[in-house]
Amino acid sequence: MRLVLLVSASLTLIVVDHRLHYLELVRQGLSVMTTPLQVAAGMPVKGVRSAGEYFADLAHLQDENARLRREQTELATIRLRQEQLDQENARLRALLDMRERVQIDARVAEVIYAVRDPFSRRVVIDKGLTHGVEPGSPVTDDLGIIGQVTRVYPLNAEVTLISDKDQALPVQVARTGVRAVMFGAGSGLLELRYLAADVDLREGDRIVTSGLDGVFPPGLPVAAVKSVDRDGVGGFVRILCVPVAGVEAHSTVLILKPGKPVDPDTAAAGTAPAADKPADKAPKK
Fold first, then answer.
1. Are 107 and 255 a contacting pair, CB within 8 Å?
2. Quick one: where's region Disordered (predicted)?
3. Which of 1, 164, 266, 276 lies 20 to 30 Å (CA to CA) from residue 190?
């Protein structure tokens, strides 16, 4: 009887609700009351799903950042390499221009390493006897003189820089033509020696090769006067100069062929040929 009564009541409520919608308000009230329970019941599942998505996105972002860092490093390396190649190309073009200016047989060489000697300034280049390098050959860069070949081996050669204390170079002042000898003074500086205290010399004067040694072509830039101390010992002036070339910096150099000796008397007399000089008179008997 209970089952029949409950089934009958259920069917009656279903029919009445379907026809007249009397239980709509009740259903809405129950929905409002059960919504928090449904949300609370779904939170663990939603939390687990959100955590999974978070860690997946985190791993993806980490992979993406690592890839971007690799690409950035590769691009930076390519950019640095490109800048190095541009500088090297510019230096090679300048060396070729220097070879055209000096109008002498010359070849390009690379500096392999610097000699580990605290008392000298020398470097080793990758050209030697098999490449036609001769002892005493002048070595320049695109700006001026940097040294001289002092030892030659079959595949490489040793260059003594002009900043070495034992290296001497005959030079002259471009402005006045005064001739002197340039020595290495250490610490990358050069020194003009054996000049009188009243010599006409100023800070900033250009020093070039004189060519009197027959090795270095005349007129090649060597240094610029940095300081002039006229209170030197023994009546001589102390003159410090700064090299104009990258003496201890550049890795690409130009090896010149040694020139022919120059007669100091001819150089002092000027450019007049020997044939134009008056002949000496024969002595009378």
1. yes
2. 260-285
3. 266
Whether 231 maps to a domain, the answer reads yes
CATH code where residue 148 lies:
2.40.10.340
Token pair listed for 241: 């100069």
Q: Are strands 189-193 and 238-243 parallel, antiparallel or unpaired?
A: antiparallel
Classify residue 84: in a domain, yes or no.
no
Enumerate the β-bridge partners of residue 229.
Answer: 238
Give me the residues of the chain with pLDDT under 50, please: 260-285
Is the distance from CB of 99 to CB of 254 less than 8 angstroms?
Answer: yes
CB 128 within 8 A of CB 153: yes
Q: pLDDT per residue over 50-92, tens digit each? A: 777 887 888 888 888 888 887 777 777 677 667 666 766 776 6
Q: How far apart are CA 59 and CA 64, in angstroms?
A: 9
**Quick one: tokens of 278?**
């008056």
C-alpha pair distances (Å), 233 with each of 182, 183, 189, 193, 225: 18, 17, 20, 11, 19
Tell whether 212 is covered by a domain.
yes
Q: Can you give the length of the chain in residues?
A: 285
Q: Which residues contact 107 (CB under 8 A, 6 or more apart)?
A: 127, 131, 132, 133, 254, 255
Planar angle of CA 171, 93, 136, nearest 5 degrees: 35
71 within some domain: no
In the chain, the number of structural domains is 1
Dmax (CA) for the chain in angstroms is 178
Q: Which residue, among 182, 162, 165, has the nearest Cα to 119 in the 3D structure? A: 165
Domain encompassing residue 261: 106-268
